[in-house]
Description:
The protein is built from six helices and six strands.
Amino acid sequence: MLGDSLKQSTKPTVVFIGPTPPPHQGVAVTTDCLLHSGLADNFRLIHLDTTDRRPMDNSGRFDIRNAYLALVHGVRFWMMLITKRPQIVYVPISQNTLGFLRDSLFMIPARWLGARLVIHLHGGGFAQFYESTNSFVRMLVRVSLSQVDLAIVLHEKFRGIFGNLLPPTRITVVENGIV
Length: 179
């Protein structure tokens, strides 16, 4: 019994940020699969559930509920950082301004408090998002990505999607195996 608790306490702690189904969309399904994979054999997994059960048409748009959820999730994350002291934080990142603003609430504090930061990009529109946004958001993207230890992209053709914002040595390909 004591050996089990000692073994549990020596596992690195990983905070997984992301929604779970429903709705059944890429990030939610991936988060659910990761949480129910064999990762728990080697890591202490903590999930910050960012699920919004409303229809997907509110995604990427400003509304009071989205702002409230971002604030609540940001506060919960700070509490997790302070009380759980994770070694790794996993953040699936958005490719739109409001979503990335929310994601930066997770990315920057994670590194400030010493966690390694892993981001996961689900899609191929990041370069277009970055180029089409204003100078403040581009600066926030640069600051946020400078904190990243590892970026996961879904296909070899996306390895260069971050341009000069992330060195190739910090980008890995994990093809989407969920169909």
